[in-house]
Write a structure and sequence with these properties.
Layout (H helix, E strand, L loop, with lengths): L5 H4 L11 H24 L7 H17 L28 H13 L3 H26 L2 H13 L1 H4 L10 H20 L7 H11 L5 H14 L3 H26 L10 H8 L1 H10 L2 H32 L12 H14 L5 H6 L8 H15 L3 H29 L3 H12 L6 E3 L5 H7 L12 H10 L7 E6 L10 H10 E8 L4 E11 L3
Parallel strand pairs: 1-2
Antiparallel strand pairs: 2-4, 3-4
Helix pairs in contact: 2-5, 2-6, 3-4, 3-20, 4-5, 5-6, 5-8, 6-17, 6-18, 8-9, 8-10, 9-10, 10-11, 10-15, 14-17, 14-18, 15-17, 17-18, 19-20
Length: 526
């Protein structure tokens, strides 16, 4: 650790060359525009495949805020269709900020995927800005621009800013804002740094997710090191108060401490932690887990980004040759961003393995490393050009990756399939399908759907036929060729349905598939 007042008695090391403030601001504006442009396709597209279902889940929550108002007691209800209060399905593992902001966005833009994704994109632009401020304030403006550029183009920022997760740019950008405000407070008032603005940023981040607790814990450690015990107690109390308010709200809104889907928050913590990871290891081979852990960093940060990060790490190991990395506040920033990444991944190994995006909390640290490598080679305008070319090359390759992934995930399938189901089926009747029943599909269909009913689940249908007639109400939907997942096997199910029920064929023109719909009341041989 570095004392907060370390830079007051020793002049900061001089750096070889830096941009003027005006030039840096113009470059920062260009980076923000480039970041917004790279996110545009993901922002404008419908809820598609993959992790898009997280945003759709909060769209359902926002619809229920609209439907039930204050009866929800500001808790997140995720039923796709109207339901009695006793049948509400709550989601209480995270604070309700995502649901609240989605509802507000719906009031302005209507109940669309765009309205759900927009707050995350705006927050991701804030994250770009804050990363610039963090690095420019303690290293150099060039380092700040390099960190901003990395945050703008790497998939961990550009692609996952539109997937609508609780662990996303809303919570991370505000947690970083708290870190920057704390850094600024210590620099300006090293003996008694103010705390109010820092605490407000922490509260704003906590509205969305728990990641800010790691930043608050880091602030506590720094205050303890500086013997500022009152301030340390304040931010430690923030952590305790945050959990307390959450549990009291769950109890008030749902009538129990259980909350909703998946059990309590404690059960979720244990299942995603070491206890859950030990069970996960027994379900999958070690080779499979190792492949996932190797794939995730490449998918989030690209190979080029990882190589530049490695160069930046080397620069830190040899930082005596780079004066800018020895300036006051640089080492605490390095450690703080490292703690942010480690503090929200190491306690949750199972969550990291299951959620491809969980390690986006390392994006600030990776951006710092890339910026450090660029800073190490910047000894003047000519050397800065070399660094700029390296950043542009990385950004170009990363942008191609982002655009390709947006194209694969932003498909019209769920919207077209869901709207067809909404137009042709009765929401009060049960509906089964061989496709996955994701929140995306339920959002567009505006109904509950029982999915993944493929050939492996045909036996219950046959047993039901032997024991008595199938229900007279209900629907079965088969998509050919299957879309989600594409290797779904439902030929036997389809043959059985065609043998007993009248088939309705509905072309899904945008998707290029055909929806085959069967109504249980419309039998071939009644």
């Amino acid at each position: 650790m570095v004392p907060d007042s370390a830079g007051d008695s020793v002049p900061p090391p001089s750096i070889a060359w830096d941009l003027s403030r005006r030039a840096a601001l113009w470059w920062l504006l260009g980076i923000l525009i480039a970041g917004a442009a790279l996110r545009a396709h993901g922002l404008s597209g419908p809820f598609g495949l993959g992790w898009q279902h997280l945003g759709a889940q909060y769209a359902l929550v926002a619809k229920n805020f609209e439907r039930y108002g204050l009866d929800t007691r500001l808790a997140m209800v995720q039923n796709a269709a109207p339901a009695a209060k006793d049948d509400w399905e709550y989601f209480t593992h995270h604070p309700p900020g995502m649901g609240w902001t989605t509802w507000v966005s719906f009031q302005v833009f209507g109940p669309t995927a765009f309205a759900v994704k927009l707050p995350g994109v705006l927050a991701s632009l804030l994250q770009i800005l804050v990363m610039y401020l963090l690095l420019a304030g303690v290293v150099s403006r060039i380092a700040g621009l390099a960190a901003a550029w990395s945050t703008a183009v790497l998939p961990a920022g550009a692609f996952f800013s539109t997937h609508g997760s609780d662990l996303g740019p809303q919570s991370i950008s505000l947690a970083l804002l708290a870190l920057w405000l704390d850094q600024r407070a210590r620099r300006k008032h090293p003996h008694r740094p103010p705390w109010l603005a820092v605490l407000m940023a922490c509260v704003a981040s906590l509205v969305f997710d728990w990641v800010v607790f790691v930043v608050a814990g880091w602030i506590v450690l720094r205050d303890l090191f500086a013997k500022n015990f009152r301030r340390a107690i304040l931010f430690a109390g923030f952590i305790v108060a945050g959990f307390t308010v959450h549990f009291l709200h769950v109890r008030y809104a749902t009538g129990s401490m259980h909350g909703g889907r998946g059990g309590t928050l404690l059960e979720s913590f244990l299942s995603h932690g070491v206890v859950g990871a030990s069970k996960f290891l027994t379900q999958f081979p070690v080779e499979y887990i190792w492949r996932k852990l190797q794939h995730y960093p490449r998918a989030l940060f690209t190979v080029g980004g990882l190589w530049l990060s490695a160069a930046g790490l080397l620069a830190w190991l040899l930082r005596r040759f780079t004066p800018a990395l020895r300036r006051p506040g640089a080492l605490p920033l390095f450690l703080g961003l490292l703690v942010l990444g480690l503090g929200y991944t190491l306690p949750f190994p199972r969550a990291v393995l299951i959620h491809q995006f969980w390690m986006i909390v390392f994006l600030p640290f990776v951006s710092l490393l890339i910026a450090s490598g660029i800073q190490a080679v910047t000894r003047g305008p000519r050397f800065a050009l070399v660094g700029a070319l390296a950043l542009l090359g990385m950004g170009g390759l990363a942008s191609q990756t982002v655009i390709a992934r947006q194209g694969r995930s932003q498909t019209p399938y769920n919207q077209e399939f869901g709207e067809a189901l909404r137009a042709r089926t009765s929401p009060e009747d049960p509906l089964l399908t061989s496709e996955k029943s994701t929140a995306c599909l339920r959002f567009y269909a505006e109904r509950e759907i029982h999915g993944s009913f493929d050939d492996r689940k045909l036996a219950p249908l046959l047993v039901a036929e032997q024991e008595g007639p199938l229900p007279d109400t209900g629907w079965f939907a088969v998509v050919e060729p299957p879309v989600d997942p594409r290797d779904t096997q439902s030929k036997q199910v389809l043959a059985y349905l065609r043998q007993h029920y009248v088939e309705e064929e509905i072309p899904l023109e945008q998707t290029g598939s055909v929806l085959r719909l069967f109504h249980f009341a419309n039998k071939l041989n009644p």
